[in-house]
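note to self: the first set is below, dont mix up w the second
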Amino acid sequence: MSSSSRGPGAGARRRRTRCRRCRACVRTECGDCHFCRDMKKFGGPGRMKQSCLLRQCTAPVLPHTAVCLLCGEAGKEDTVEGEEEKFGLSLMECTICNEIVHPGCLKMGKAEGVINAEIPNCWECPRCTQEGRTSKVKGGRERHLKKKPKPPLASAEGPAVPSPSPQREKLERFKRMCQLLERVPDTSSSSSDSDSDSDSSGTSLSEDEAPGEARNGRRPTRGSSGEKENRGGRRAVRPGSGGPLLSWPLGPAPPPRPPQLERHVVRPPPRSPEPDTLPLAAGSDHPLPRAAWLRVFQHLGPRELCICMRVCRTWSRWCYDKRLWPRMDLSRRKSLTPPMLSGVVRRQPRALDLSWTGVSKKQLMWLLNRLQGLQELVLSGCSWLSVSALGSAPLPALRLLDLRWIEDVKDSQLRELLLPPPDTKPGQTESRGRLQGVAELRLAGLELTDASLRLLLRHAPQLSALDLSHCAHVGDPSVHLLTAPTSPLRETLVHLNLAGCHRLTDHCLPLFRRCPRLRRLDLRSCRQLSPEACARLAAAGPPGPFRCPEEKLLLKDS
């Protein structure tokens, strides 16, 4: 019966799994290799789907679904105590035919099998060893189950043992080259020293080794008798033989690889791109200067600008001017690729909309550190893990921040965002809050408590528009905090949205009269507020009455 007809495991290698015990398995991702940079958690597209280079398991094991090809049962080495019995009941995968069997199920005995000591449950089965097949595993330390007599030493006239496979021979030559390179302490010797080194390397073979045999007992089949020169032009001659012996050069080791640079190098757009005129095919320049072209481009939308960038190289450079991109909308994108982020940085917009996108924390930090002139940032619907990048990014020019409907955000996390950076000096706590210059803040749908509201009043004193709609914890005490005599928002608040706050009652309505600059008050969908009480507030109001275009919506003309 052929190996392909015995079952699904014959002839097809089973994919091994992690051992979860070696040093590589228990460590974390490095974040620097090309596989980590491709992961979505580090800001990549997630296409390779490979593990970190430093987390590749050194001793992968067979999957738990692997069974014996002959008896159909899994490994049962845990049911016995003796070492011989454990081996007979453990699953072993052959590196040649890829069959997974119990050694005890084979009728040929275990004396002819060869175990791979580096990979668990890996061997060369007795059937493949008896047929003389070549192993597919390279460089592994093999342990024979039964000691075999050493092959006779080769004579000077010809080999006495069969030659190994070309793959094994190539691997052994590579090992010998590495050993010779490690033994050379200095590579800047003169030509006379090089000749003496080549002579000494030829006589460094021990006397008990065969003339054409390598140090590990393998005999190369090519280059043992012919006269060949290595890459350095030196030859090592073995005394007592008729011809030179091929040896690897003792030249300098290859220089270390330079550190890997970033894939996308982003440069800010030049302040005055060249040229200032548009060259024509006839050799002359267009009569309109660059300033006139930019005025024309300002009447185009993003789609038309992208079409103009394909016309010529000059227009492509001019269309990157930040005056043409005051606002960029990337909302509801499934993934943000590195070219998209690079394009945002080159255009330097003043307003950026990333709402309902899968932007990661690393991507957001990368953007905020390169958009120093950003004034409006919309992150509604994003995850808090990515929004937490605001706590470590400089936002000197930010005026509008939209954090509506952030997923899995807690009150303690909001406090970390509102508190000043850790490097703030004790005397500058009041003036160095992260939201110090923000004028409009949208926090709809968040679990905002009165403790977080106190921090908001302390570290964001310049708010003129505040959105607290659908915040479940906002009630009458929250309104009292906003309109208290010590509150800085009492004199600056112009727009206040409290729609959907079901804890508000009619007792909090008179407190809004303390805000003289209030122009818009949204109390819609507040269940415990009566329309009559809202109508009385609209009639009295702060200085000047309000008008009610809708029920519980109070507006005042400026």
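second set (the one i keep forgetting abt)
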Amino acid sequence: MPPPADIVKVAIEWPGAYPKLMEIDQKKPLSAIIKEVCDGWSLANHEYFALQHADSSNFYITEKNRNEIKNGTILRLTTSPAQNAQQLHERIQSSSMDAKLEALKDLASLSRDVTFAQEFINLDGISLLTQMVESGTERYQKLQKIMKPCFGDMLSFTLTAFVELMDHGIVSWDTFSVAFIKKIASFVNKSAIDVSILQRSLAILESMVLNSHDLYQKVAQEITIGQLIPHLQGTDQEIQTYTIAVINALFLKAPDERRQEMANILAQKQLRSIILTHVIRAQRAINNEMAHQLYVLQVLTFNLLEDRMMTKMDPQDQAQRDIIFELRRIAFDAESEPNNSSGSMEKRKSMYTRDYKKLGFINHVNPAMDFTQTPPGMLALDNMLYFAKHHQDAYIRIVLENSSREDKHECPFGRSSIELTKMLCEILKVGELPSETCNDFHPMFFTHDRSFEEFFCICIQLLNKTWKEMRATSEDFNKVMQVVKEQVMRALTTKPSSLDQFKSKLQNLSYTEILKIRQSERMNQEDFQSRPILELKEKIQPEILELIKQQRLNRLVEGTCFRKLNCRRRQDKFWYCRLSPNHKVLHYGDLEESPQGEVPHDSLQDKLPVADIKAVVTGKDCPHMKEKGALKQNKEVLELAFSILYDSNCQLNFIAPDKHEYCIWTDGLNALLGKDMMSELTRNDLDTLLSMEIKLRLLDLENIQIPDAPPPIPKEPSNYDFVYDCN
């Protein structure tokens, strides 16, 4: 008798018959189980049959995934993947339009299953679909006017099936013809096309560009930015998302020498203002996928600065030196140049050296040497010139204000600009590839064509203001830069919608305000370090940890929607996981779309008893992070990955939507297993709640000095005459 762990109780359906309740022995071959089921219904040729989940996924049961079958699962006996693939391969070539449409609809649904997909691809199904797209559209061109809905649905299902089949990574993208690319591009270039056809066509183009250098070149020849922009001016956010994804893919895969040219085209077509008007400021919420694509576009745009950031200044290059001369001219506006005599040449050098010192360069004689460090390289000089030309009054005021001071409190404009540019590049991660999971875009960077330069102009004025507020000297330079970085970072976290709003936020974050914030944070962290307070902390810490544990478990009961990712492209495929109210079972299952609230337990098909969980692993220890692929190497994805290990060689793999959810789930799962909650979020919550609880308990002792040691016990009195006998 096999152990109970190997026996699974399931229900099996067959059309026209009552469902069967039976026990499946997981040690028996799957073919033997299918034969047993077929024999029960007197069905011959059991090799033509297979089992699949009876839920909306309809995924086939295979030797690889059979361990996912749990007690209470409802299965369906159906035709085998090979038979089904063969039948559909024939049906989609039917001469009947209705039969063909129905077959393509079934194909689009079944293609999500990798088992079926493999069988259909083995029949050269991908080639058949591409031929239908290339030639089929012309074949039914005459019928399009009288059968437009049918034609649109047929093409939509064909493209959907193609996308689903390709997403399994079985077939290389390099195998497709120019004719197929032209046809897909033509759907995108049409002004009036069915939304579902347009969406899938954009998805196909994005995948082509991201997965093949040869296809990138062919797609780039067929699709122009001008043809994509009209799709951004519509109201369908999904179409807008896919459109920006295609633009990002073209941007990302473009050769270095082509990227700047492409950026110029984007500027000419006013892409930024169109996105600002029709996406960011549209009267609707921005979903996660759109936020990710905007973040990617933001990163790729800023990465155009990398070349200048990593370019050293050539002290012998006259054109580059002329920029420094221009900075001096704008600031000091020399009335006339001395004559070219040897004496006047010395005067000129002396005057230039004096002026360069006033401008705040480290090297007064040859300021070009200040720009030989990379980063920020020539980017710092570009920013200084932009500030001098486009904010001339502010530039002259800062330079003259500091050059006239003689009390060692002058703020060196040149040195400050160089260090500030370097700091802003670090904050915006200029030169780094975009993350696969990040949604952190800033609306204000879409409000100006020269957003980085304007960002610099605001921050250099902030730096000068903070320098004065701190009454800093050259020895305090690094301290000032730290304060400015904190001011900028705190202002950015509020996600200002415009540069003016960002400037307003900085006005409220003066040096005095930063000191108050630091003092408040320091009080929370350091002020309660006396022995009595530490003893009190130790006493109430278990209560706080129990409170945090209950909060984590309550969040697991609410559940979380997780996104399915792969290395080819981001997918709008989701699955949901939640803990049962009695904390004994994890319920999980696939979803068609992102839910708007909690997903009920009964709609989640799969279960995992908490008692079966062996361990929880994170990061590189996760099975799905050990696979090969570009996505798996992404540092940010590694930081969000965790897996539940159960039974023998079984696991449930997660990629959290963000760091907060990662901490919630890893804490909650560790709490269920009786282990310590070790996340950064737990440490922060513990510090915050401990601090609040201690402050509440010490309210009655306000303004009373708490000694480090208990007071001494007084000596006994010389007599007890003061004692009053109540009796």
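remember for set 2: The radius of gyration is 34 Å.
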